[in-house]
From TrEMBL:
Protein name stated in the entry: Sugar phosphate phosphatase
Cofactor(s) needed by this chain: Mn(2+); Ni(2+)
Domain Damage-control phosphatase ARMT1-like metal-binding residue range list: 24-424
GO CC list: nucleus
Amino acid sequence: MAAVQSGVPPSLSAKVTGSFAYLTIRDRLPTILTKVIDTIHRNKNTFLEEHGEEGIEAEKQAIALLSKLRNELQTDKPVIELTDGLEDTDSWNEYLQRQQRLQGDQEPVSWFKSPWLYVECYMYRRIQEAVHLNPPISNFDVFNEGKTQSFYESQKAVMTLCTFLEDTQKNAEKLSPDQLSEHFSKLLQISLWGNKCDLSISAGQDNSQKISPIDALAGLQPYILVNDSGVVWSTLMSSRRAGESGESGVDRVDIVLDNAGFELVTDLVLADFLVSSGLARKIYFHGKSFPWFVSDVTANDFHWTIRQTMAANHKWMSKRGFQWQNYVKEGAWSYHDHPFWTQPHEFCDMAADAPDLYARLQQADLILFKGDLNYRKLTGDRTWEHTVAFSTALRGFGPAPLCSLRTLKANVQVGLQPGQGDKLTSKDPTWMTNGKYAVIQFYRPV
Ligand SMILES: O=P(O)(O)OC[C@@]1(O)O[C@H](CO)[C@@H](O)[C@@H]1O
Ligand SMILES: [Mn+2]
């Protein structure tokens, strides 16, 4: 018998034929796997040059494992245990048991029958396994090409953004609190819309930012379904440091990153603004410890992006790059990864399953969660009514005041006004998944 969790709606799943989850597993994931196989194959000569015959053997073996994975997925085979003995292997295998208990013993956990969040995360972990089991190429990032390409293709937008930041800095001393809050609100929205540029929703197709991100803001405003940016601002203002020494701003803002490419630049620009205008003293960036959901940021992407920005042939862009490198050197900015970010858990499990990470997040004054996957994990990727409060969907998760900056690319959205969801459905039936809409959704733990 399946275990029923009382009061909590079921997980989104591909078992609903025709749903977005179903179409993702049927169409998008096999396309992503095919591209991964193709990428490894195209790099054959590099592997040969770097590792000789062993490199070629590794290429063949990795492709064989990935083809097997694609076949398991497409024929809805049971999900199997990981065998690579990495730091998180046991935890993944335990989670499989947990899913089996929740699902009951009638049917095995499988791609089209089990929670979408779980099986989609599992696919990326299996890609990691296929590469890791072939040592000479175990550090190869199968998504690197797409991530770097999306950075280069957004160059004009990046330059515009860095010039905008330079202008705000020039007049920083003369800014009234209202003007400062106005700049903050713009940069927060730019970081929000940066989330349109992910490569998982487009199955690896170019999805870079081509128009001016600042000019686009006014036209995008009506598409922000929940806008709690005012409360985010007051959180930054109601500082723990205020009163002590007359300083304003908070001690630490954490940004749980999502995608590399243009989105990462928008996050870095926001973080730069927070530090340079004294709104925050430190920024902790949280990223992934292996390639994830095609475009997500790893430590390598983070540092590469800073280096590329420094090397740009554009005065204000390279100036920002050097500033960012200084922040890292001085410790104002730091990059952190933790295996929990590349696990399939809903965030309400974090306190029990990754207590060290939960404790670290509790030290933040504000946590910004970027992107759709983080929203799915915040809300458990469940079929909540749209009017359910965000606090209810978080199910006890709340290490610190937090805000989700997310464009909608999955069928989960809470915290809407009565009737708002129905209105949207009649106007634009795919509003929850087409990436046109967004939320800036805040929660303060009590
Ligand atoms: O977290 P991100 O980068 O905003 O989005 C990742 C994402 O595109 O991947 C899935 C589709 O494969 C969607 O659920 C989700 O929207
Ligand atoms: Mn992503």
